[in-house]
TrEMBL record:
One of its GO terms (cellular component) is ATP-binding cassette (ABC) transporter complex. It is a multi-pass membrane protein. The chain crosses the membrane at residues 32-57, 63-82, 122-142, 154-175, 187-205, 243-264. This is Transport permease protein.
């Protein structure tokens, strides 16, 4: 890992703050509802998935419960951060090509600023999850279920850190490759759609263990498996901690960061010639 480049990024942190503020300001500049869209979008999608997976399909299992929305949102909201970050970082260099060429700030910052901005939007969407947690704990149930906050909520901190590292690492690969190969952004979108269903968002890993136990080892290569577990363990005492998934998520996330910094450094000169 190039510590000199990291030091340059840190020395320009005030510029990074300005870029993030600009992104957030532009996003809501012409919107009447502004920040409320960060609540409306996940709430709408959560209700749709709840209706399909928690009501229609659950009739076969009797699992119809408001608790399912809590479980679903605890996976969907972090996924939205990841999905939006990867999609936007893939276009980060090309979309800002005039500034990328003309400014002398570390070009990795054009990727990092996207991840931070999307991370702030993610944090602003968390009241949707809090609302349903409060409803369930207040006794508003549609069936049987369990939501009980516990000390394992502290796992949210490593979940935030690891997802931040993962998004930056992957973004540092996506941005220069997409700038050089335009079709790559389409591949990214296809892979993200597939990855959504290979990540335990609308289902639990227990289901994989029951139906396809051999698939667990393959899914462990997806760091989001462990990260999703971290987001959820503090919401219920019945969810067991998967330390193997946590360790794998940490190792792969850090590996992506190291790999991303290396790829970005190798392709930076070629990208500047192309854009």
């Amino acid at each position: 890992m190039d510590t000199t480049r990291l030091a340059r990024i840190w020395s320009h942190r005030k510029v990074l703050d300005t870029l993030v503020r600009r992104d957030l300001r532009v996003r809501y500049a012409r919107s009447w509802l502004g920040y409320l869209w960060t609540l409306i979008d996940p709430l709408a999608m959560g209700l749709v998935f709840f209706f399909v997976f928690g009501v229609l399909l659950a009739r076969h299992t009797g699992a119809n419960d408001l608790v399912f929305i809590v479980y679903l949102l605890a996976g969907m909201l972090p996924w939205n951060w990841f999905n939006n970050s990867i999609n936007e970082t893939a276009r980060a260099l090309y979309a800002e090509r005039l500034l990328v060429r003309s400014t002398n700030i570390p070009r990795e910052m054009w990727v990092i600023r996207v991840v931070i901005a999307k991370g702030i939007e993610f944090l602003l969407s968390l009241p949707v999850l809090v609302l349903f947690v409060v409803l369930v704990m207040a006794g508003v149930h549609l069936g049987d279920g369990d939501v009980s906050l516990n000390w394992r909520l502290v796992a949210i901190i490593p979940a935030l850190v690891l997802q931040f590292i993962l998004c930056i690492g992957m973004g540092l690969v996506m941005a220069p490759v997409t700038a050089l190969v335009d079709d790559f952004v389409r591949i990214v979108r296809i892979v993200l759609r597939m990855l959504f269903y290979f990540t335990p968002i609308v289902y639990a890993m227990d289901l994989v263990d029951d139906k396809l136990p051999w698939a667990r080892d393959l899914m462990m290569f997806n760091p989001l498996v462990g990260i999703m577990d971290m987001w959820r363990v503090g919401l219920s005492t019945t969810v067991e901690v998967d330390l193997a998934a946590w360790g794998t998520a940490a190792a792969i996330s850090v590996a992506w960061l190291v790999f991303g910094l290396w790829v970005f450094r190798k392709l930076e000169s070629a990208v500047l010639k192309e854009i």
